[in-house]
Amino acid sequence: xxxxxxxxxxxxxxxxxxxxxxxxxxxxxxxxxxxxxxxxxxxxxxxxxxxxxxxxxxxxxxxxxxxxxxxxxxxxxxxxxxxxxxxxxxxxxxxxxxxxxxxxxxxxxxxxxxxxxxxxxxxxxxxxxxxxxxxxxxxxxxxxxxxxxxxxxxxxxxxxxxxxxxxxxxxxxxxxxxxxxxxxxxxxxxxxxxxxxxxxxxxxxxxxxxxxxxxxxxxxxx
Length: 222
Ligand SMILES: [Fe+2]
What we know:
Blueprint: E1 3-4, E2 8-9, H1 19-42, H2 49-80, H3 85-117, H4 125-154, H5 157-173, H6 178-183, H7 188-197, H8 200-217
Antiparallel strand pairs: 1-2
Helix pairs in contact: 1-2, 1-4, 2-3, 2-5, 3-4
Bound molecules: fe (ii) ion.
Fe (ii) ion (FE2) binds next to α1 and α2.
């Protein structure tokens, strides 16, 4: 029998927790964190320790998300649409979008360093954050309107479950902050929906370990 999240079978797997749910949830968390960064930059708080820690975590979450898509998801979609030029072009656009974000992220890094050196005034941090935010928003919409629907139309249930397994393994092994980061600050209904849809083992890990650890870090001074 196929399994999901270790010992849980498909029959016991909560119905809503599909891999694209995880991907969309991450997109919302990117938007939320960039709103926080923009607010901190506008207030001249770019050098605050908790803001920098929030930014470091956001960069890591973006890196892991892109790694999962570029290294795992898009190659499988690519195989499924082999020979279909228009669909392959969509995936190339995704890779180009990802590559285009790198210099904008580096520019925020540099502006943050400047902000730390000039006493927190922020230099061009607000502009750097604005440009990253606009580019990321364009990319996320592009992906949500083209690449993810394409992936949903060509990948089988088993492939989505394998991707969820891949994400889960990374989550448990190296990125235990993913779950508490996704639910940080979201409404009670969405929070409950997301957590309830997780495999029980991960929900428990989040409750006793991941979320307390995440809260202690007070990312963005929250
Ligand atoms: Fe994505």
